[in-house]
Inverse folding.
């Protein structure tokens, strides 16, 4: 293997692999990148066995072939090199020589034969605009559970229907559901796939990198999900197991409704939560005819109370929420009015941004018992 | 809020309380109102409680903790037994050797806790500032109670009398300006005495004592001091602060102050426990899966009940496995959210046990510790809210039954096969 690439091109692709390469791995080959030079192209592959990415850039290939290079070290070195052509050459014993101008490095690689094989991309199921998928992810990702024992909650459920795309995520305390009308050509029936959180993060990164009008070709086989974004391919192992029946927990009788501006609400919750109990982060909403009072107190730091004047005609209600859960939603929600729909102090509340015309977005949040 | 009972302290009064005797070195007899800290300590508490049920054993050497052929240590020894050299924390076998004719009784910790709570309630009548530092020991600040109970010395006397009359459990007390001196004084007053160390006479009172009498000075410090030629508090008080700090660092500063009867404690009346733990030492090392599982279940239920009594939730659960040969493994798990439910705690502890028990080895002791304790707002569950609610109702009902009929009357099925549980 012998080739040369432009530093700028290589650095961009290397950066995109970093989310996939495991920092702590017990399998040494997984901290390496597989580099393959063929035709006029360099292909770079990284995997942690759960998630894999295959990307690449233009290269002047002098001798076709492949080798592996430690991923982190390569990125750090390339980042420090000047904006010039970088030449790579595979030496004996899997070493790789890297030359840039009069600077010369040799890195210890490993045999490419040990690098895991990636599953082949099957026939694509649908094509989704990158921007749409990215928006679904941004509105749900934060609600995914970090608790490893509840592994079916460690991802988002992507729902594909012939004329609708939806994504839902929950950690058992709150649930984010977003839908958008979109014709999915070639899809005849509903498909549901559970996408691991790490894959969602990477899809978003690839989508952001691919530009406004990019399309994502989505495919799956029995165990894997495939996201082809332009020349880059992300492959994720599918999360198996039963995602909870989220439809059953969507509130239906939340008739106590008050509408607040997102920014006003967000700022108030952020300020009040400064003085919330440090462990529970609970803030209290007291909704009455003269408005909404948001308050919190902490035995160590003191107390906070803010009132937002707002018309409200229902019975007064006082309910506690985890401030962080509110802020997670408010920063993902579109600007403008937010409808807060409550039932009683023990039942789930629902929040919906009213000014989001493209996405139907609802956030269901269980209160805290104060 | 944690109940007072959580920090059980004792104070005991003696029969018709012997008149309080001011320490011999009192330099002034006018009562200084700053001298208001009372340390109350039950005399041979566990033994005293046992004697309530076995009055015929009075005057005989009695050891509480188990039988002399069993593993385990002495929890308490009567004054008669102490004459044979028996003391708390001594192996039962050693105690049996020292005094073969002593009466050995098994411990009844639930009973001691009950009496401890009663005494705590009694103490609370004498001052709003009561800190129970253990099951049989408490500090009170009598400052500001003068109009209700008279001068501190009179109040202390009355407190001891009332304790004896209502419980028939003996106790001793020390009254002084600082907690340290009060504690040393109650120790000197034992059994069934009250010792007052007037303000200003602390140094003189302490001077004649061995350094080991000062709370905080244990075997190690004692030996270190001895190598410097220091054996009494008087000798310690003559050493300069610089010298002590040079030898002991920060501990030297503390020693300098302690030798003068000063301490820096403040009352922790509202303090919450930092952790709650229950351990069980098996009579014989075991690898019987059923017995181990049953013991874990029992320990979890015990600890969880104490957690609920204190009104707290725990987030970190720690399992201790001590193998035969004393090799000890502790493993912790932090839950996503705090809980006070038996089932949640047991589930996590069982998982830790399954992951970390080295099955080739027999187990001597199992322990369960709950920490990262919190109270207050509780996050409700979206997905299995009704299941949790049922568990909470079940737990509340179980607790009520246990409060009425005793802990062991209601158990999870899992703990029933235990031959070891109390």
């Amino acid at each position: 293997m012998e080739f040369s690439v432009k530093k700028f091109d290589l650095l961009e692709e290397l950066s995109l692999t970093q989310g996939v390469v495991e920092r702590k791995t017990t399998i040494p080959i997984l901290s390496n990148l597989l580099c393959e030079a063929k035709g006029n192209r360099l292909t770079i592959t990284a995997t942690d066995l759960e998630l894999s990415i295959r990307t690449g850039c233009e290269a002047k290939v002098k001798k076709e072939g492949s080798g592996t290079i430690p991923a982190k070290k390569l990125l750090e070195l390339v980042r420090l090199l000047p904006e010039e052509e970088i030449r790579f050459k595979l030496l004996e014993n899997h070493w790789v020589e890297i030359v840039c101008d009069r600077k010369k490095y040799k890195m210890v690689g490993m045999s490419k034969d040990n690098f895991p094989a990636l599953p082949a991309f099957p026939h694509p199921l649908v094509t989704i605009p990158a921007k749409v998928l990215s928006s679904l992810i941004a509105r749900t990702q934060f609600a995914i559970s970090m608790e490893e024992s509840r592994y079916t909650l460690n991802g988002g459920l992507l729902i594909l229907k012939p004329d609708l795309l939806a994504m839902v995520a929950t950690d058992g305390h709150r649930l984010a559901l977003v839908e958008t009308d979109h014709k999915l050509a070639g899809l005849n029936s509903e498909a549901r796939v559970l996408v691991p959180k790490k894959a969602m993060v990477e899809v978003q990164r690839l989508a952001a990198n691919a530009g406004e009008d990019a399309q994502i070709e989505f495919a799956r086989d029995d165990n894997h999900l495939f996201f082809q974004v332009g020349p880059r391919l992300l492959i994720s192992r599918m999360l198996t197991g039963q995602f909870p029946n989220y439809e059953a927990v969507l509130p239906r009788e939340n008739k106590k409704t008050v509408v607040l501006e997102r920014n006003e609400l967000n700022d108030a919750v952020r300020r009040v939560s400064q003085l919330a109990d440090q462990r529970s982060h609970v803030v209290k909403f007291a909704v009455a005819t003269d408005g909404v009072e948001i308050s919190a107190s902490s035995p160590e730091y003191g107390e906070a109370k803010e009132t937002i004047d707002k018309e409200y005609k229902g019975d007064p209600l006082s309910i506690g929420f985890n401030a962080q859960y509110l802020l997670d939603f408010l920063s993902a929600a579109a600007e403008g009015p937010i409808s807060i729909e409550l039932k009683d102090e023990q039942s789930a509340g629902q929040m919906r941004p009213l000014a989001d015309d493209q996405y139907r977005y609802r956030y269901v949040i269980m209160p805290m018992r104060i | 809020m944690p109940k007072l009972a959580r920090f059980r302290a004792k104070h005991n009064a003696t029969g018709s309380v012997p008149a309080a005797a001011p320490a011999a070195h009192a330099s002034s007899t006018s009562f200084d109102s700053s001298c208001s800290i009372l340390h109350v300590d039950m005399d041979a508490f566990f033994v005293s409680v046992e004697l309530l049920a076995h009055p015929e054993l009075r005057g005989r050497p009695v050891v509480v903790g188990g039988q002399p052929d069993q593993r385990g240590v002495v929890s308490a020894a009567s004054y008669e037994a102490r004459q044979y050299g028996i003391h708390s924390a001594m192996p039962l076998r050693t105690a049996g050797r020292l005094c073969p004719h002593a009466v050995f009784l098994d411990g009844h910790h639930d009973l001691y806790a009950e009496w401890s709570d009663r005494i705590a309630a009694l103490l609370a009548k004498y001052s709003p500032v009561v800190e129970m530092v253990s099951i049989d020991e408490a500090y009170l600040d009598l400052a500001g109670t003068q109009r209700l109970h008279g001068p501190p010395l009179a109040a202390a006397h009355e407190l001891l009398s009332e304790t004896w009359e209502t419980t028939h459990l003996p106790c001793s007390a020390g009254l002084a300006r600082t907690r340290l001196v009060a504690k040393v004084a109650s120790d000197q007053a034992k059994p069934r005495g009250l010792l007052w160390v007037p303000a200003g006479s602390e140094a003189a009172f302490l001077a004649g004592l061995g350094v080991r009498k000062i709370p905080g000075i244990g075997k190690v410090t004692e030996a270190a001091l001895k190598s410097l030629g220091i054996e009494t508090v008087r000798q310690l008080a003559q050493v300069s602060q610089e010298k002590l700090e040079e030898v002991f660092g920060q501990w030297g500063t503390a020693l300098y102050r302690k030798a003068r009867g000063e301490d820096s404690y403040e009352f922790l009346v509202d303090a919450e426990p930092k952790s709650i733990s229950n351990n069980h030492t098996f009579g014989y090392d075991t690898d019987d899966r059923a017995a181990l599982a049953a013991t874990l279940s029992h320990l979890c239920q015990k600890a969880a009940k104490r957690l609920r009594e204190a009104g707290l939730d725990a987030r970190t659960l720690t399992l201790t496995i001590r193998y035969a040969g004393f090799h000890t493994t502790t493993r912790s798990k932090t839950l996503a959210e705090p809980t006070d439910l038996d089932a949640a705690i047991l589930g996590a502890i069982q998982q830790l046990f399954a992951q970390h028990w080295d099955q080739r080895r027999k187990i001597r002791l199992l322990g369960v510790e709950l920490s990262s304790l919190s109270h207050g707002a509780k996050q409700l569950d979206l997905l299995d809210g009704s299941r949790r609610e049922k568990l909470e109702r079940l737990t509340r009902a179980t607790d009520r039954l246990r409060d009425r009929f005793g802990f062991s009357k209601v158990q999870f099925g899992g703990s029933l096969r235990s031959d070891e549980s109390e």
In short: The CA atoms of residues 340 and 356 of chain B lie 24 Å apart. The two ends of chain B are 29 Å apart (CA to CA).
